[in-house]
UniProtKB/TrEMBL annotation:
Transmembrane segments: none annotated. GO terms for molecular function: sarcosine oxidase activity. It comes from Nitratireductor aestuarii. This is Sarcosine oxidase subunit delta. It comes from the Bacteria. The lineage of its organism: Bacteria, Pseudomonadati, Pseudomonadota, Alphaproteobacteria, Hyphomicrobiales. One of its GO terms (biological process) is tetrahydrofolate metabolic process.
Length: 89
């Protein structure tokens, strides 16, 4: 079992977390004409890199969404950050 660190609650079992998606993943501009293909790509396709990745995760106990930096091969977590403007850089 792996331990992930929620920036709000501290270290917890990986079973308490849910993967949300890539970070950052800009949403298509809703004010512009967005094709069905663009929405499909946004909703269903993930980067899935081999190596370092920034991802959005939800801690199911506190329902907070945060950024986690981790290595997708070794599963080493290098950081967990609240989604505030200073933490996203």
């Amino acid at each position: 079992m792996q331990i992930f660190t929620c920036p709000f609650c501290g270290p917890r079992s990986e079973t308490e977390f849910h993967f949300v998606g890539d970070f950052p993943k800009p949403r298509p501009d809703g004010m512009a004409k967005v094709s069905a293909e663009m929405w499909s790509d946004y909703l269903h396709n993930q980067n899935n890199p081999k190596g370092a990745a920034s991802e959005l995760w939800m801690h199911m106990a506190c329902h907070e969404i945060f950024r986690m930096d981790r290595h997708t091969v070794t599963h080493e977590v290098t950081g967990s950050y609240a989604l505030s403007s200073e933490a996203q850089s």
